[in-house]
TrEMBL record:
The lineage of its organism: Bacteria, Bacillati, Actinomycetota, Actinomycetes, Kitasatosporales. TPR repeats lie at residues 857-890. This is OmpR/PhoB-type domain-containing protein. InterPro entries: AfsR-DnrI-RedD_regulator, BTAD, OmpR/PhoB-type_DNA-bd, P-loop_NTPase, Sig_transdc_resp-reg_C-effctor, TPR-like_helical_dom_sf, TPR_rpt, WH-like_DNA-bd_sf. Keywords: DNA-binding, TPR repeat, Transcription, Transcription regulation, Two-component regulatory system. It comes from Streptomyces radicis.
Length: 963
C-alpha cells in the first residue's frame, strides 16, 4: 500500500502520487466515498442505494450495489494490507488507515492546532487546507451525496480558513487575509466570521473605503435574504472603521474541533431488526421533499408533506414509521424529532402539546432561558427555529388533531409523520394531511416475519403449526413478534409443544380500538407470561400498576421491594421476552397492549394490599429522591415539614451535588409528574402534594411553567382531602399561584397566594409566609407597569418590606438579600434612587457572601437602574455590563431586560452607536423569546431612525424601565 492514498476532498478515488488508480465509474466512486466517510463502520445497503439513486431507486438497485461492491473489492485487492472491504448482514464496511484518507488527515491536522503555538498552528492549517483539491466529493454519481454531505464538509473547510485568518491577522499579514477571503466573502456574504476578518484586514491595510463598502454590501445581503441586521461584532467593526479607530487586535481563539459537533437532534428510536417490507413504504417514499425544497409528490411550492399512519393498536404503525424514518433520515440533514404523544396508553394522561413542544425545544437545542413561559410563545419559537430547515418530525401515538396541530412546523423541505389509532379527519381536512391506512399482515407477510426471526428449517419442519400461529395471530404484527420471541427462546422445543393451549378465549383485554379486533392477543401474550420465572412474572404484573410511559431500574426495585441487582436481572429477562423495551439507558417502557395485559394480571393475581404497598414504595422512592434533589438545587429554602422516612424495600436515590440533582430531575421529570397524577387518583394524597412541592423549584427554574401549574392543581385536589393538614393545601396553592403569576394570570395567582399566605401566617411558618409576600410584591410591581398604577407600586414596596422583615427575623440570609433587592428595585421605580443604592448594595454584599452569582447579577442590574435614574449614565453602564457577565446565556429573559436598560443608558451618555447596537441585540434576543418589551424597543429604534437628534418620546422611554 506504499504511496497510496484515498481522496474525498476533490476528485474521489484511490491515488498514487498524482495518478488516479480508480475507480473508473461514478457509481463506484460513490460507494467508495460512502465507505471512506465512516471507515470501519458498517454502511447499510439501503444507504448506499439512496446515495446512488436518491429517493427513486430502480427495482434492481440492491443487486446493482452488490455488483459495484464486487468491482470495488477487486480494485482494492492489491492493497489488502491496508484497505479491507468486508461484508456483513447489515451492509458493508471498509477498514482503512485514516491517515491515508485526505478528509480524516485534514481533520487530524485541524485538531492538532489546539496545542501548538500560533506559527506552528498556522503551518498545520495551511497543510490541512492544501489537502483540498476542489469541492468535496466532486465526481460521484448523482447529486444526493454532495447535497447532503458536501455542505457540512465545506463548513469544516471554511472554519479552518477562518481560524487561519485569525492567526494571520494577529501576525500582521493583512494583505494575505484580503487575498484569501475576498472571493470567499463574495460567494457567501452571510458568513459573519469571514466578513469580520476581511473587514478588519482591509481596515488595517489602510483600505478603509473598501472596508466600509464591504459592510454596505453585506448589510444589504442580510436585509435582502434574512430581513435582519448583521450581528453585533460586525456592527462594532463597522463603527470602528467609520470613526477611523484601530479595531481591537485579533487574538487567536481556541480552534474548533474537527469535525465541529452538529447540534441537530437524532431522536429516532432504535430500528427493529427483521422488519417486513410493506406496501405503505412506497407511498411514504413518494412524500419525500424534493431536493429544491419545493414540495413533494407533485405538490405546489412551499407545501410541507404531512402523513398520518392510521390503524388499530398493534398493527405496526410505530414500527413502520420508525423503520422508514431510519431509511429516509439522510434526506433530512437538519435532524429527526420523535415524540410518543401517549394518545392511547396506560392512563388517560395523554401528552399535552405543551409538553411535546418543550421536549422538542430541548432537543433542537434551545437554551431554557430563551423559552417563553407561555404556550403560544413556545409554539412560535419552535416554528421559528425550524424555519428553513429540513427536519423529519415523527409524532407517534396521537390521540386527536388538536394534539397534533401545534406541533406542525412551517418548514417546506421538512416532513411530518403522524401515527394514530384515530383517523384524524380534522387534520386531513384543515391541514391537507394525507391519510395512509396501515393494514394487518397478509398470511405471506406473517410467514415472512416468522422466517426473519426464527430458524427457517424449524418452520419448514412444522408447516401446520406455522399455519396455526399465523391464523391465531390474525395478521397482527405485535402478536406475531411476541409469538416469534416466545418460540425463539426455546430452540430445542417442537413448535407444536409451544402452541399448546392456544385455544383459550379472550376475556376483557381490548386489543383494538372501535371493535376492529380479529386477533387473540391475550392468548399470545400468555405464552410469554407463562414462560417467565416467578420473579419476572410478578414484576411484569406490578409494572401494570405504573401509569407512566417509562421507569428506571431503581424505581422498579422499589416498586417490587427487591434489590437493584435483582431488578436489573428481571428487567433483562422481560426485555429479552419482548415484554418491556429499554428505550434509553435505564429507561424501560412498554406497549399499551402489554400494559393492559399486565394490569389485568395484577388485578387478578395480586391482593389489593400488596398492590397498594407496591405503589406506596414507588411513591416513597420518588418523594425521597425529589426531596433530596430539592435540597441540593434550592439549598436556601428550609422545608419545615420533611416527608416521612421511606418504607423498607425502597431503594434510595443517591445524589452528591447540585449537578447530580439536576441530572436526576431531568431524567425523571415525566415519571415524577405522572407519579403526582397517579398518587392523587389512587388516594395517596400525602405523596401527591409532597411530591409536587419537592419538584416545584426544579420546574420553576427550568421554565416548565405549564407543567408546574398542572402538577399543583392535581396536588391541591389531593391536599384538600387532608383537612387536618392545612399546610398541604397552602403549599399546593403557593406552587399554583407562582406558576399562574409567571403565566400572567394575575387574578388567579393573587387568590391562590393570598389563601396560602393566610394559612402560613396562622401556622407560624415565617419563611413560607415571606415567600408569599415576595411573590405578591412581584405581582404588584408587574401590575404597576401593565396598568400604569402608582398605587400598585406602593403595594409592591409594602409587600417586599414585610417579607424583608420576616426573613431578617428568621435569620434567612438568602431571603433577606432577595427582599433587599426587591425593595430597592421598587423604590427606584418610585424615583427614590438613593434608597435603592442602599438596599441593593446591601443585597449584593450578602449574595457575594453566600456565593450566589445570579443573585449578584440581579443586584448589579438594580444598582445600574438607580444610577441611570440619578443622571449618571456612565456609572449605570458599568453596573449593567457587570450584571450581563453573569446573565448572558443563564437567564435570557433577564438578559433582555438588562440589555434594554443598558441601551437606554448608552443613549443618555451620548454613545448613540453603541446604544443602537445594544438595543438591536435586545430586539433580536427578545423576539426569539417573545419578550413583552420588544414593542417598546422597536419604538425607540423607530424614533431614532425618524428623528436622529430628537428626544425620545414616552413610548420609547418605556423600553428602559422593564425589570
Amino acid at each position: 500500500m506504499n504511496g497510496v492514498e484515498f481522496r474525498l476532498l476533490g476528485v474521489v478515488g484511490v491515488w498514487q502520487g498524482e495518478r488516479r488508480l480508480g475507480p473508473s465509474t461514478a457509481q463506484q466512486r460513490t460507494v467508495l466515498a460512502m465507505l471512506l466517510l465512516e471507515p470501519g463502520r458498517v454502511v447499510p445497503v439501503d444507504r448506499l442505494v439512496t446515495a446512488l439513486w436518491g429517493t427513486e431507486p430502480p427495482t434492481t438497485a440492491r443487486n446493482a450495489v452488490h455488483g459495484q461492491v464486487y468491482r470495488l473489492r477487486r480494485l482494492l485487492a492489491p492493497f489488502a494490507d491496508g484497505a479491507v472491504l468486508t461484508t456483513s448482514r447489515q451492509g458493508y464496511s471498509l477498514a482503512v488507515d485514516e491517515s491515508r484518507v485526505d478528509l480524516h488527515r485534514f481533520r487530524a491536522l485541524v485538531r492538532a492546532t489546539r496545542d501548538g503555538d500560533p506559527d506552528e498552528a498556522g503551518d498545520l492549517l495551511r497543510t490541512a487546507l492544501g489537502l483540498w483539491r476542489g469541492p468535496a466529493l466532486a465526481d460521484v454519481a448523482g447529486g444526493w451525496l454532495p447535497e447532503v454531505t458536501g455542505p457540512g464538509l465545506e463548513d469544516e473547510r471554511l472554519a479552518a480558513v477562518e481560524r487561519l485568518a485569525t492567526l494571520d491577522l494577529a501576525a500582521g499579514r493583512h494583505q494575505d487575509v484580503v487575498a484569501e477571503l475576498t472571493p470567499l466573502v463574495a460567494a457567501d456574504p452571510l458568513r459573519e466570521g469571514l466578513v469580520g476578518h476581511l473587514l478588519t484586514a482591509l481596515h488595517r491595510a489602510g483600505r478603509r473605503a473598501e472596508a466600509l463598502a464591504l459592510f454596505r454590501r453585506v448589510r444589504r445581503a442580510f436585509a435582502d435574504e434574512l430581513g435582519i441586521e448583521p450581528g453585533d461584532d460586525l456592527q462594532r467593526l463597522h463603527q470602528a472603521a467609520l470613526r477611523g479607530e484601530e479595531p481591537a487586535p485579533a487574538s487567536a481563539p481556541a480552534p474548533p474541533t474537527a469535525p465541529p459537533p452538529a447540534e441537530v437532534p437524532r431522536q429516532l428510536p432504535r430500528d427493529t431488526d427483521g422488519c417486513v417490507e410493506r406496501p405503505e413504504q412506497a407511498a411514504l417514499q413518494a412524500l419525500l421533499p424534493a431536493r429544491d425544497g419545493e414540495g413533494a409528490g407533485g405538490e405546489g411550492a412551499g407545501a410541507m408533506p404531512i402523513c398520518v399512519l392510521t390503524g388499530p393498536a398493534g398493527v405496526g404503525k410505530t414500527t413502520l414509521a420508525v423503520h422508514w424514518a431510519h431509511r429516509a433520515r439522510d434526506a433530512f440533514p437538519d435532524g429527526q424529532l420523535h415524540v410518543d404523544l401517549r394518545g392511547f396508553g396506560p392512563s388517560d394522561a395523554a401528552m399535552t402539546p405543551a409538553e411535546a413542544i418543550r421536549l422538542f425545544l430541548e432537543a433542537l437545542p434551545v437554551p431554557r432561558d430563551r423559552v417563553p413561559a407561555g404556550f403560544d410563545g413556545q409554539v412560535a419559537l419552535y416554528r421559528s427555529v425550524l424555519a428553513g430547515r429540513r427536519v423529519l418530525v415523527v409524532l407517534d401515538n396521537a390521540r386527536d388533531s388538536d394534539q397534533v396541530r401545534p406541533l406542525l412546523p412551517n418548514a417546506p423541505g421538512s416532513l411530518v409523520l403522524v401515527t394514530s389509532r384515530n383517523e384524524l379527519t380534522g387534520l386531513v381536512a384543515s391541514e391537507g394531511a394525507r391519510r395512509l391506512p396501515v393494514g394487518l399482515f397478509s398470511d405471506a407477510q406473517a410467514r415472512e416475519l416468522l422466517a426473519r426471526r426464527l430458524d427457517p428449517a424449524r418452520l419448514a419442519a412444522a408447516p401446520d403449526t406455522v399455519d396455526d400461529i399465523v391464523r391465531r395471530c390474525g395478521g397482527l404484527p405485535l402478536a406475531l413478534a411476541i409469538a416469534a420471541a416466545r418460540t425463539g427462546a426455546r430452540p430445542g422445543f417442537p413448535l407444536a409443544a409451544l402452541t399448546t393451549g392456544l385455544g383459550g378465549s379472550p376475556r376483557d383485554l381490548d386489543v383494538f380500538d372501535g371493535g376492529e379486533a380479529n386477533a387473540d392477543v391475550r392468548t399470545v401474550l400468555s405464552w410469554s407470561y407463562r414462560a417467565l420465572s416467578p420473579g419476572a412474572a410478578r414484576l411484569l404484573r406490578l409494572l401494570g400498576l405504573v401509569e407512566a410511559e417509562d421507569i428506571g431500574s431503581d424505581a422498579v426495585a422499589s416498586l417490587a421491594g427487591i434489590a437493584p441487582g435483582e431488578a436489573g436481572r428481571l428487567l433483562t429477562e422481560l426485555t429479552r421476552a419482548h415484554l418491556v423495551t429499554e428505550r434509553a439507558p435505564d429507561r424501560y417502557g412498554w406497549h399499551d397492549l402489554l400494559w393492559a395485559y399486565a394490569h389485568e394480571l395484577s388485578l387478578a393475581h395480586d391482593p389489593e394490599p400488596e398492590r397498594a404497598e407496591a405503589l406506596h414504595r414507588l411513591f416513597d422512592h420518588y418523594l425521597s429522591g425529589a426531596f433530596r434533589g430539592d435540597q441540593l438545587i434550592n439549598w436556601h429554602y428550609r422545608v419545615e415539614v420533611p416527608p416521612p422516612p421511606p418504607r423498607p424495600g425502597v431503594v434510595p436515590v443517591r445524589l452528591g451535588d447540585r449537578a447530580d440533582a439536576l441530572d436526576w430531575f431531568r431524567g425523571q421529570r415525566r415519571a415524577l409528574v405522572a407519579a403526582v397524577r397517579q398518587a392523587e387518583q389512587g388516594g395517596h394524597d400525602t405523596h401527591a402534594w409532597q411530591l409536587a412541592r419537592a419538584i416545584r423549584s426544579f420546574l420553576f427554574q427550568q421554565g416548565l411553567t405549564l407543567e408546574q401549574a398542572e402538577v399543583h392543581r392535581v396536588a391541591l385536589a389531593a391536599a384538600l382531602r387532608l383537612p387536618h393538614h392545612p399546610a398541604a393545601a397552602a403549599h399546593a396553592r403557593f406552587g399554583l399561584g407562582q406558576a399562574q403569576l409567571r403565566l400572567g394570570a394575575f387574578d388567579e395567582a393573587r387568590a391562590e397566594l393570598e389563601a396560602a399566605g393566610d394559612v402560613f401566617r396562622a401556622l407560624g411558618s415565617g419563611a413560607d409566609q415571606a415567600g408569599v409576600l415576595s411573590l405578591l410584591g412581584v405581582m404588584a410591581d408587574e401590575r404597576a407597569t401593565a396598568e400604569d398604577d402608582p398605587a400598585a407600586l406602593d403595594a409592591a414596596v409594602a409587600f417586599n418590606e414585610e417579607a424583608l422583615a420576616l426573613y431578617r427575623a428568621l435569620g434567612h440570609r438568602a431571603g433577606e438579600a432577595r427582599s433587599l433587592n426587591n425593595v430597592g428595585w421598587c423604590r427606584a421605580r418610585r424615583g427614590e434612587y438613593r434608597a435603592t443604592l442602599e438596599h441593593c448594595e446591601a443585597a449584593y454584599a450578602i449574595h457575594r457572601e453566600l456565593g450566589d452569582p445570579l443573585g449578584e447579577s440581579a443586584a448589579l442590574d438594580s444598582i445600574g437602574f438607580a444610577y441611570q435614574g440619578l443622571g449618571e449614565p456612565e456609572r449605570a453602564i458599568e453596573y449593567y455590563e457587570r450584571s450581563l457577565r453573569w446573565r448572558r446565556g443563564q437567564e435570557q429573559v433577564y438578559e433582555v431586560n438588562t440589555l434594554i436598560k443598558l441601551g437606554g443608558a448608552q443613549l443618555d451618555a451620548g454613545r448613540r452607536a453603541e446604544g443602537e447596537a445594544t438595543l438591536r441585540s435586545a430586539l433580536r434576543l427578545g423576539e426569539a423569546l417573545a419578550h413583552p418589551g420588544v414593542a417598546a424597543v422597536r419604538a425607540t429604534l423607530a424614533a431614532l431612525d425618524a428623528a436622529p437628534d430628537a428626544a425620545l418620546d414616552d413610548g420609547a422611554e418605556e423600553s428602559r424601565t422593564g425589570r
